[in-house]
Amino acid sequence: MNNTSTPNPADNHLASPVGTTLERYIMQKQGEFPFATGELSQLLRDIALAGKIINREVNRAGLAGIAGAYGQQNVQGEEQQKLDVVANIRFIRALRNGGQACAVLSEEEDEIIHTGNDQGKYVVAIDPLDGSSNINVNVSIGTIFSIYRRVTAVGSKATRADFLQGGRQQVAAGYILYGSSTMLVYTTGHGVVGFTYEPSLGEFFLSHPDIRIPEAGKTFSCNEGNWFDYPECVRTYLTGCKQQRFSGRYVGSLVADYHRNLFTGGIYLYPPTKKNPSGKLRLLYESYPLALVIEQAGGKALADGSAVLDIVPIDFHQRSALYIGSKDMVTAYQACAEAEDQHPHPAPAVVA
């Protein structure tokens, strides 16, 4: 009889490794985090925990009676879905209970949400559930988040200054995609990593240790229903994409369209329109975090003629245009826009 406790390597095929959990990965990489004292690590865990709960809610929404419209509008003037309200509550609760975030800025709330954790050193800006109207038709939706180290004194109440620092001051940002599988993708300024949720174990496992967007792509993602409202430079660029037989892919869920292009190469465009002359996407909790991820993955993000992360914020719910994705495609769009600025053409007449 063999009394040794040393596992036999020949038996490894009976129980292959399941991978590195998010918890273990964060502990291994904590030294890369700014001011590595554990608070940022805990914040990422709190966001992941809320993501697990939302994954459950999304998967049982129809059975639980939480799909469909809530019957109210949020501060953006958009009709709230029941899951918008649920996700907002879940993330705020997780961040409050985690103790590291002194305040939260949510798409669903008008003003700062103070968590009561005034000793916390971080603030979080979040879109709790992007694309929630798609839940009724089983299309992927997501959560987008951005984390800043506060600039006000620890122990005091967070103020506007803590959230209006600018995109370059983000210490971490990312998103959670609730799709055929649920993924958490984030950056702390040292590249981009992706974790896939394993529901039977209730854990996120490292599945993509170094995400890099292809420099070139052949996919464009935009709402072509707004074609005649788009600036001429956008129509010129998109016409060139079509002449090259690029593929148009758009489901109307920002995280889903962005995620596909991040992995396969492409460009996502949300230009200004007559209805939204400044653009529609929210700068602080949509454009900034996705721009930080894309730059860390080797891509590019533009708005209003400059890098998204260089736009100076002036308002919590400030809107922006967004051109984001593979570096070569975004650069090509930028060239079209600059050429149009130098030699503008009149917009074609719209025939009713």
TrEMBL record:
Domain Fructose-1-6-bisphosphatase class 1 C-terminal, residue spans: 213-336
Sites where the protein binds Mg(2+) 2: 127, 130, 286
Reactions catalysed: beta-D-fructose 1,6-bisphosphate + H2O = beta-D-fructose 6-phosphate + phosphate
Alphabetized InterPro entries for the sequence: FBPase_C_dom (IPR044015), FBPase_class-1 (IPR000146), FBPase_N (IPR033391), FBPtase (IPR028343), Fructose_bisphosphatase_AS (IPR020548)
EC primary class: hydrolase
Record text on cofactor binding: Binds 2 magnesium ions per subunit.
Gene3D superfamilies in the record: 3.40.190.80, Fructose-1,6-Bisphosphatase, subunit A, domain 1
Transmembrane regions: none
Domain (Fructose-1-6-bisphosphatase class I N-terminal): residue spans on this chain: 21-209
Cofactor(s) the record lists: Mg(2+)
Keyword set includes Transcription regulation: no
Intracellular or extracellular location(s): Cytoplasm
Keyword Transcription: no
Record-linked SUPFAM superfamilies: Carbohydrate phosphatase
EC number: 3.1.3.11
GO biological process: fructose 1,6-bisphosphate metabolic process; fructose 6-phosphate metabolic process; fructose metabolic process; gluconeogenesis; sucrose biosynthetic process
Record key words, sorted: Carbohydrate metabolism, Cytoplasm, Hydrolase, Magnesium, Metal-binding
Main location: cytoplasm
A molecular-function term among this protein's GO annotations: magnesium ion binding
One Gene Ontology CC term in the entry: cytosol
Positions bound to Mg(2+) 1: 107, 127, 129
Binding site for substrate: 130-133, 223, 250, 268-270, 280
Protein family: Belongs to the FBPase class 1 family.
Protein name listed in UniProt: Fructose-1,6-bisphosphatase class 1
Organism: Hymenobacter gummosus
